Amino acid sequence: MSDYGEANLSLFFFTVGGVHFAADVEQAAGMAPYSGECADDLFWFHEEFGFGKTVAYQTPVVVTIRTRDGLPYRVIIDQMEEIVEFRRDDLRLFPEILEPKVMQNGMWAVLPRHGKLVLLVDFQSLLQHSGLTVN
After folding, report:
1. From start to end of the chain, where are the E strands?
2. What pTM was estimated for this model as a whole?
3. End-to-end CA distance of the chain, in Å?
4. What is the signed CA dihedral for 90, 83, 74, 134, rounded to 10 degrees?
5. What confidence category does residue 134 fall into, taking pLDDT thresholds of 50, 70 and 90?
6. Looking at the predicted structure, is the pLDDT value of residue 54 above 80?
7. What SS3 class is residue 17?
8. Core vs surface per residue 41-58: b (16+ CB within 10 A) or e
């Protein structure tokens, strides 16, 4: 993540392809139900994240991501659950040996929650490492 300084972090939770994820609410400029549109700045999460398989979305939601350069970047996620505040101490960072690889895939930490591991996604890092160009 770009800012490790704050003690608390608000996360929005979602599930794609049976895998649990969360992202910092501050990275989202807006959210809206997916209405079937196609656009150059709109990407499916499973493709961005490199799932390597087709995923059936149940309740897709478009998240508009704040980008450092202000260019539009929207990602379709699935099964938006809730927004919850956590202490940064609750998060488990990846070991240094894994950090470069997981950051390329947009992950930066894991959160144990309700007996499951939730992968924390940094959409800005994912965009930067993916080499995508958004218009």
Report:
1. 8-16, 19-24, 28-33, 42-44, 61-65, 74-77, 83-87, 92-93, 107-113, 116-121
2. 0.82
3. 24
4. -30
5. very low
6. yes
7. coil
8. bbbbbbebbeeeeebebe
